[in-house]
Amino acid sequence: MIANVKDLFDLSGRVALITGAGSGLGQGIAEGYAQMGAAVSVVDVNSEAAQSVADGINAADGQAIPVPCDVIQKDQVEAAVARTLREFGKIDILVANAGIGDRALAEEMTFEQWDRVMAINLTGVWLFDQAVGKHMVERGQGGRIINMSSIGGIIGVETGNANYCASKGGIIAMTRCLAIEWAKHNILVNAIAPTHSRTPLIEKLMQDKPEVRTYFLGNIPLGRLGEVVDVVGPAIFLASDAAAFVTGHVLVADGGHTAK
Fold first, then answer.
1. Is it the case that residue 17 has pLDDT exceeding 80?
2. Annotation says 33 is catalytic
3. What is the mean pLDDT of residues 33-53?
């Protein structure tokens, strides 16, 4: 019999590195992990945003450090991992969350648009998975890797997202391969696939194009956009002992979007 089910979700004593943690989903996950007891490495290309989030966590009696990093620069990725290890001594949890969108009709999309989205959304995730995964293998005590995908990696979405959807589909395929490859090291690799969520990026898009909000809501049976907290819960679950037998899984947090 389990002594205390609540203990399954406790992250005390663990260290999490989260990319894209200066705003949006990444910030929410960083703050959520800190509330659950984890020390957090707040990684973001925007150094001021990373500092602000880390300061907020520390002011709330959590433990966090800001780590500026461009996820497509291999040397910066390795430096971010090394900085986290110097500060905290280990990394138990990686959330590879950093990502962007850059919409254009397929026939009009430039190579630069394609290349930049693929570089940040897919290569950036790979570089962190590889660098942190190597540490976890060498440390020999397992670990959790959570890659941020999207419903766009599972189903087709609105016109103009060929680059975004390709990158998010690639994350799912990579997640499954790494889950199998690293299972022998007890490194559990999973992905989260949210629907359209209320982040600064989505808010700006809806302000620029009000019809986009109507489109989004028309595809979500629960009738609302996802909120940051709707992804924080799944991220805590996948990082916790409650998910000790879950690997190679894509946890869809989409209000029923992909059920249609």
1. yes
2. no
3. 98
